[in-house]
Design brief:
The structure is a single chain. A hairpin with a 2-residue loop joins strand 2 and strand 3. The radius of gyration is 21 Å and the shape is elongated. With about 240 residues, it is mainly alpha-helical. Helix 2 packs across helix 7 and helix 6 runs parallel beside helix 8.
Amino acid sequence: MARGRMVNKKISNSQRVNDLPLGAQLLFTWLIPHLDCNGCFYGSAQMIKSLVVPRKSWPKSLIKKWLALMENSVDFESGQPLLQRYLVGKDEYLFMPGFVDEQIGLRRDKEKPEFPPFDGKNTESVGQTVPLSRTGSRTGSRREVEVKDTPLNPPTGSLFDPLTEKALKDYEDTIVLPGTLLSAEMKAELLQACQTFSPAVVSEAIKEAVKQNQKTWRYIRGILNNWQRDNKGEMGTETQ
């Protein structure tokens, strides 16, 4: 596989890419250098986490949700999603439509494919929301798409339960500096903490840090670790 790939600057102006959560935007962009000459890569969240984002603390469940968003983001002119999952036997792979067209100087005659090529027939949606036709049939210039009740581009907030959303908002409103955005890495840290300690406990730890005028994630994490060590439960109260 090549050491790198070209990333066209138009990716930053893509509406479909910008509709993704910040972490998903980063994941989508970082996938590009890892694609083989046909635009293919491993499809499992575990392999993507290990090879594409090994230094991120993103849980596999979050990566799966982001992959589903990418696959469900379909261009109505071409009928193509940002990413397409396909199966070869029991192995899962990903294909990025349009990848080859963006790679100026790509020598597919010289570079050996690393993964089985996508043939347009062995498709299966990651999110099971907008699967492409298994036969790969087309109507006119558009690939047939089965649209179910779930919207093509669900809002970011719909990915998380209300308590998790509250914890994220509490951090943004009280810890993040005015005029700045919550980074994808920090959001992943918060989501991981919500899974480990519960969203309500994370919100209470944020409140306690603000009360102590210690508005840093390091201090908040210390509060959470202390509460866990001292066997404290929901909302930082002692469990019986």
